[in-house]
Amino acid sequence: MSASHDTDATTGSMQDAAAQPTAAGLKPQYANVENWVRDYLLPSFPRPAGELGATGRWRWCEQWWRHDEAVTILTALWYGWEHSAVHTLGMLDWLPRLYHLLPILAGDDGPFRLCSPAAGDLPARHEMPPVADVVAAPAGWWRWWGTEAVESTA
To answer: Alpha carbon of 88 to those of 75, 105, 134: distances in Å?
Structure first.
């Protein structure tokens, strides 16, 4: 499931965010994070993807929605934008967050670090970074939290 949809707990159906009123009773201006990225973010804040610039190389993946880290960052930015867009001076709080997260999202160490846009005869490249290995915590490790954690079977 992607962050751009909400699951109805009673029916289990997927719905666009636009169908869900916000706490203030307003519907989002964009139906989902994909629409916001395509129709607002990329046109409003263009970056030279794949080109060397004064601050380094900006990376973008045409399949950004396959990168969980990118979806999380972009969804947080979209939610923040939706909230800020309806408040006087709301963008003053949102813009610093955007400018902080853009270099993380599209930087050399970001989720698109192994991807590249099409260039000349070369097709676009989409590669997922490897997931780090983990070792399970020893039995009882989490008891300090006050409850025993439910063990994952994954």
So the answer is: 22, 27, 45
Tell me the Ramachandran region of residue 50: left when phi exceeds 0, alpha when psi lies from -120 to 50, beta otherwise: left
Per-residue pLDDT of the chain (154 residues; tens, 9 = 90+): 444 444 444 333 334 555 555 556 788 999 999 999 999 999 999 887 665 545 557 888 989 999 999 999 999 999 999 999 998 898 999 999 999 999 999 988 899 988 887 778 888 888 888 889 999 999 888 887 666 555 555 5
Provide the residue ranges of all domains of the chain, joining segments of one domain with +.
Answer: 30-117
48 in Cβ contact with 106 (< 8 Å): no
Q: What are phi and psi of 105, to 5 degrees?
A: -65, -50
| Single pTM value for the model | 0.70
Give the ranges where 32-127 is alpha helix by DSSP (H): 33-36, 42-44, 68-85, 90-106
Q: Which residues contact 75 (CB under 8 A, 6 or more apart)?
A: 3, 4, 33
Strand pairing class (5-7; 14-16): antiparallel
